Amino acid sequence: MYTPITQQNEANVTKFLEGFQDEDRYPDFEELMKLMETISEEKPKMWGSSIIGFGKYTYKGKSSSGEWFKIGFAPRKQNISIYAISGFEKEADLMSTLGKHKTGKGCLYIKRLNDIDKEVLIEFLKRSWIDMKKW
Length: 135
Description:
The mean pLDDT is 91. The longest helix has 16 residues, at 118-133. The two termini are 21 Å apart. A seven-stranded antiparallel sheet has the order 1-2-3-6-7-9-8, covered by helices on one side. The protein has a single domain (8-133), classed as Aspartate Aminotransferase, domain 1. The chain has helices spanning 13-18, 26-40, 92-98, 118-133; strands at residues 8-9, 45-47, 51-54, 57-60, 65-68, 71-75, 80-84, 102-103, 107-110. By secondary structure, it is α+β, with helices and mostly antiparallel strands. It has four helices and nine strands. The relative contact order is 0.17.
């Protein structure tokens, strides 16, 4: 059975984010981290070398099993990747009012927090967090 390469580790989240201080999106990263910490009531943890995650759960699928964070984000070159397992189709009402974004299989991609309605993002993350409490 396949085990994911990306695992929670003890790398320093603050040091990781400090590597982005010269970017104009750095305040977005800090704000997003604070939002997720407030919603989850969990401390941020590094997952792999570039993802900041909050909480964790164990999953077992047909071909893989492991642990994953409940909500999280990753500063990427092109976008900020926001991870929330709730599901974009399920939350179509929120996604339609979020603002400028794209979605992938399990990621929400935004360029800047100013491009979206932060209150809608907060509600989406809250719903996702509550859904994950069931796991």
